[in-house]
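Human
Can I borrow your eye for a moment on a structure tokenisation matter? Give me a protein, with the fold worked out from its sequence. Write it directly below this note and I will take it from there.

Assistant
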Amino acid sequence: MKSLFTVTCLLLLFGNCYSLPSEINDLEADSIKTFILDAKHDSDVVNAYIDWDNLIFHSNPKLDLQLNKKIQKICETNLKLQLNEQEKLFFKSAISNSYNNLGICYTNFGDYSSSLKYYSKGIEIAQELKDKDLEAKFLNNLGNVYGDLGEPKKSIKLYQQSLEIEKEFGDEKRESGSYINIGGAYSELGDNEKAMNFFIKALEIDRKYEDHEGIGISLNNIGDIYFEEKQFEKR
């Protein structure tokens, strides 16, 4: 059922997420460019690129890709050097952010093989950092790509792994997203009964936390199941 909604995990590890008029964004971007030219340390350059990316990622996907490639290259270069633990943590965290953004970019461009590559790299970094929460986000997004590729069984396996980590940390809000995604994958397999069970679990959590966006997504997906089952009076 292509109309079902899925949930993608975004990473905002550094900087701020901007939503400003375009002329203000342009001025801010010019300021960041000047800062990058004068910056003495690669960590400052990486943070500046992240701030710049946060300005434009909604409006300019090609530049979004370019900026995250720059971040990736700087981080990879530095991670080959002798670094102290704080520096390693910084560049590994920054590169994990770029891997996730690149995965999203390539998914939006329809380049799923590249998406799979970057999300898989992200999982490796998360495991190196022993960051289970980060690993869960990459597992979820990797599952979304397999869903786009028409492989829902692989999606379910990855979503379940993500869900187990979320349960371990008691992150019910994120559990809701995993339930929605698992339900969508079961719907793709034609198992509407299992799909409905997961959508209802998501809806219960969304109502508990008064998450109106989540409630809307869950109800939409439940409605689509009723429509497919021709139970129009329930839709």
Q: What stands out?
A: The chain has ten helices and no strands. Residues 12-20 have pLDDT under 50 and may be disordered. The radius of gyration is 20 Å.
